[in-house]
Every structure is written in C-alpha cells, then in structure tokens.
Design goal:
Layout lengths: L2 H10 L7 E2 L5 E6 L2 E2 L7 E8 L2 E12 L2 H4 L11 E8 L14 E3 L6 H11 L16 H29 L4 H13 L1 H12 L4 H7 L3 H11 L10 H17 L20 H14 L3 H7 L3 H7 L27 H22 L5 H9 L7 H9 L6 H15 L8 H7 L3
Parallel strand pairs: 5-6, 6-7
Antiparallel strand pairs: 1-2, 2-4, 3-4, 4-5
Helix pairs in contact: 4-13, 4-16, 5-6, 5-13, 8-9, 8-10, 13-14
C-alpha cells in the first residue's frame, strides 16, 4: 500500500459508504475533503469535517499507519497544529498535537471496496513493460481517444514552458528562439546536443546580418561546428575556411564550448555536413521565418516552404574528402514532419498561448494530418491495441509512457483510473 493511493481515495471520495465512525466511535461526515497539497505540510488544506455533530475547519493528514505521525515527527511541527482529522489505512496508535490534545482518527480500510484495492495493487505491482500491458487492449476507445488528445496538449504545454525559458535568455526574440530550436532538431537524436551547442555559441543577430548569403552562413555554421579545422584541397572548403576566419575575427567568435558532431551510425543523408548546409540554405533563401510559420496552417504549405536542398558542393558530396553521385538532397517530408512535431507546432502553440490567441483546433488538425512516428515505444503500444495513425497519437503515447507509465502514475492516468475502478 502507498500513501498516494490513500490520497487518491480521499481526494475523489472513493468509499463504499458515507457513514464513517472515528477510532473513538464518533460519527464523521465529510463536508469538504479539502484542497490537495503536493508541497510540504498537511496533505489536504481547508477541509470541513463534522465530527460528533461539531463542524471543524482545518487540515487533513493521511498516513498508511497512524504511528507514521510520530515517525515523520509531526508532533513537533507547528505546520500540523491545525490538523482536524488523521486519516489512516491502519489505526495502530493514538496521536496528539503539540498541546497534547488527541487528533480524531479515521481508519478508512473498512470503507474501501476490496476490488478497488486489489485492482490498484495488481497494477502497481505489475512487472510488465507498462503496468496495464495485459489490460490495455480492453480500454474503451472513446476514453482512450479523449485521453490521448489531452496528453498531446499536456506535451505541448510542457514544451511551451521550455520555449518560455528560451525567450527569457533571448530577450523575447521569437525568431532567435525558433532558430535555436530548429538548429537542435536538425541534429536529430545523434547530434542534437552538438547542434544545440553550435547554436548557443553565437548570437542570432549574426545570422540576421549574413542572411541572403548562403556561403557566409555555411561558413559560420561549419566553422562554429569545428568542421573547418582540418585541411582539404577542395576550393569550396578553402573558401569556407577563409570566410570563417574573417567572420571569427569580425564577430569575436569562440567555439571552444561546442561539442564535436558525430558521423557514426548515421545514414549519409543525415550527416551533419548535409544538415548544416540544408539549414544554412533555409536561412539564405527564406526570410522572416517566424512570422511565416505563424501564418501557415496547411501541411502542404510547410512542405513547400521547407523543401530546400543543400548548396551546390553538397549535391555531389557527403563529406569534404570524397565525392558521390549527384543528388538534390532536399529535406524529405518525413524530416519536415519531425520539424513540425518538435519545433514548429510547439512554438506556434506557445506563441498563441502567450498572446491569448486560440489556435488549438488548427494545431490539432495539423498534427492529425502528419503520419504517425515509428519508434520502439509507439510500435509497442500499437502491438497492444489498434490506434489512429497520426503524429498526435504517437506524441501522446510518448507522453503517456514517459510521464505516467514510467513514473507509476496510474492514479493520475485515465486508463489507470478506469482499470482501478473496474468491478
């Protein structure tokens, strides 16, 4: 048994009767269970409890065993002086306040349906991939669809918090925040941290000054990414190096804190050289990125806008040292989908939330038109139950796994709740 389960029972009043009796045989009526407190202090504030006909207003503390009151040293903590009821699973000891007055105790175990307890324990003690793995397929479709929609919005809200933090350090420059987020996501999983460190190694104002000059932007990106430190005979490489030397002196650039980019276990089309050239091309060919993505609504608009390739040299190369068969190396729809999922939709959501604009329905329509992501977590869920094949579902499933399943938060999950309450 865990206190978290007792908090859940008390908060939502999951009892099989409303006729309670205290450990001293006095009748108890729960007028208001109080406000749940997740911080230090009593578990529920501002409760209203009628005990033996007398209405009390104050706090409620919950423990597995009554003696936990002393194990947690509440008897010497003034924060607990206003506790009007001690709610416990097992009453093994009377407890007293600092002034030696006894606190009424309610042992709730006799009032909780045995099926509720058994369902909770079977979930929480599960050793499966997720606690409800054996029951996931039984979950009502309507309940699951609504929960996944809510989980996706939860995920956007968490990402929005990180965007707001970036805004603070970027002096509320949305364009600069978009740049940092795009840069990191162009690195994908393997080079995300490296690319993030590159974008943090110089101010976005430099990109603004170099905009419309592809070679200068490439020189900045490649130079700060430590990709111009060796020597190659290619004239393109020498040109980049010369440009970067000038830029480094002009803007007092420093790349000592930049993490080394990785080529290992990457397909050539995802090499950091290709991704940096593609990103440089976006900023050379597209102006006012932020305002334009805020205006765009249809998926095709984003595919057209971000469908850029590399500079000429990279059409026949993947590295500086070796040529290859010529190809345009344009950003694929799959890659643009990832940019939409991880950067564009979150920043559009955060912008709308900041300025109290309602675009949630439009964003939900947009993400529902993007193909579902394929990864080990999403694929495992799809093995358990057939679900809609959209990016909203895959993002919601990632949120479910990371924020609920992995943290055993079944009590706060609508799926877990439905299984716990199942008769």
């Amino acid at each position: 048994m865990q206190e978290e389960f007792l908090h859940y029972i008390w908060k939502y009043q999951k009892f099989n009767t409303l006729q309670f009796v205290s450990s001293d045989k006095e009748p108890i009526e729960i007028v208001n269970p109080g406000q749940y407190n997740k911080n230090t202090g009593p578990d529920f504030f501002n409760a209203k409890i009628r005990i033996g006909g007398q209405l009390w207003a104050g706090n409620v503390e919950i423990h597995i065993k009554a003696s936990d009151w002393y194990a947690h040293h509440h008897e010497i903590d003034k924060a607990y002086d206003n506790v009007i009821l001690h709610v416990v699973w097992v009453h093994d000891s009377a407890v007293y306040r600092n002034n030696n007055t006894e606190i009424p105790t309610l042992e709730i175990k006799p009032y909780v349906d045995r099926s509720l307890e058994n369902n909770y324990l079977s979930l929480i003690k599960s050793k499966s991939w997720i606690n409800c793995e054996s029951n996931f397929s039984e979950v009502d479709d309507f309940l699951l669809d609504n929960w996944l929609d809510r989980l996706y919005v939860h995920r956007l809200e968490r990402k929005s918090q990180r965007i707001q933090e970036l805004l603070v350090v970027s002096n509320n420059d949305w364009e600069a925040v978009l740049f940092k987020m795009l840069f990191k996501n162009f690195g994908l999983k393997v080079n995300a941290n490296s690319f993030k460190s590159i974008s943090n190694s110089f101010d976005f104002s430099i990109v603004r000054k170099l905009q419309n000059n592809n070679l200068d932007i490439e020189a900045l990106f490649f130079g700060q990414g430590k990709l111009l430190e060796k020597d190659f005979e290619e004239s393109y490489f020498k040109d980049l190096k010369e440009r970067y030397t000038f830029l480094r002196h002009k803007f007092t650039l420093d790349n000592s804190s930049v993490a080394q980019v990785n080529f290992f276990r990457l397909r050539p089309s995802s090499f950091p050289t290709i991704r940096l050239s593609q990103l440089a091309n976006i900023y050379a060919q597209r102006t006012a990125l932020f305002s334009k993505i805020i205006e765009m609504k249809e998926l095709k608009e984003f595919y057209d806008f971000f469908g850029v390739g590399t500079s000429e040299f990279w059409k026949t190369h993947y590295t500086f040292s070796k040529s290859s068969k010529s190809s345009n190396k344009k950003l694929s729809k799959l890659f643009i989908d990832l940019l939409l999922i991880n950067t564009i939709i979150p920043i559009k959501f955060s912008y709308a939330k900041t300025y109290s604009n309602s675009v949630e329905d439009n964003l939900l329509d947009l993400v529902q038109n993007i193909k579902i992501e394929s990864n080990s977590i999403v694929n495992k869920f799809l093995d358990l139950k057939s679900l809609n094949k959209s990016a909203l579902v895959s993002q919601a499933l990632l949120e479910l796994k990371q924020e609920y399943c992995d943290k055993n938060r079944c009590l706060y999950c609508r799926i877990g709740n439905s299984l716990i309450l199942k008769k």
